Amino acid sequence: MSNTLFDTDDFITNKGLTCRSCKHRERWQCGGSIIQYCGVRSSGRTFNGKLKIKVTNQACGKYIKENDQ
Description:
Elements: E1 25-30, E2 33-42, E3 50-52
Antiparallel strand pairs: 1-2, 2-3
C-alpha cells in the first residue's frame, strides 16, 4: 500500500495539461450555475457519484484530449 495520498501514476506530471481540455469533463446545470464533474473518477460525496472538479485542476492519468477519438 502506498503512503501517499494520491497514487503517482494517476497524475500526468510536468505536461501542463488541465481538466479543461479533457474528454471526460461533464457539465451539469444546477439551478443557475453549471458544475463540472469528471466522468471517470468517482466520489462518495456527490449525489451523482462523480468527482466534482475545477477546470484548472492538473490532468489525471485518465486524461484524453477532447478532440481526439
